[in-house]
Amino acid sequence: MMNALANLSNIIIPALIFYIVAYGVIHHTNVYEDFIKGAEDGFKTVIQIMPTLIGLMMAVGILRASGFLEFFGGLLGKLTEPMGLPAPVVPLIFIKLFSSSAATGLVLDIFKNYGTDSYIGMMTSILMSCTETCFYTMSVYFMAAKVTKTRYTLAGALTATAAGIIASIVLAGII
Fold it and tell me: Transmembrane ranges (predicted)?
């Protein structure tokens, strides 16, 4: 069974590419030109969002290097530890809202200090998969799409993040 699943995963991407090309041929569409146009549009989007990316990464780097994140975690950790959320995980939640790559750096530090199989390590792993980079996603994609009225996006994103935090506490406690 495992061998069949391994072979299936090796076939999926080439099959998808073949399907797209066959669909284009059947519907008399120039797939290559569409691909080139999409790549060009994607490159323009990257250029447009570059200042936002640089600003976010620089801000997170400054917070991390200054020691503010550890201070912040220790301060809020006193309030969150009775609820099952350890102090070392608090800065991860905060940083994950802005940058997934910076959060990954914090995850590696947590794994190095507490281990991957510890309660904190398990919670960190679950937290990284249950939450999203809300502010990064909103700033980058809304700017690229020129969205000015976000309505309930931030409230919904933060509610989903809170649900992910609660799920990580519960699941890490069960495991």
Answer: 6-26, 46-69, 89-108, 120-142, 154-174
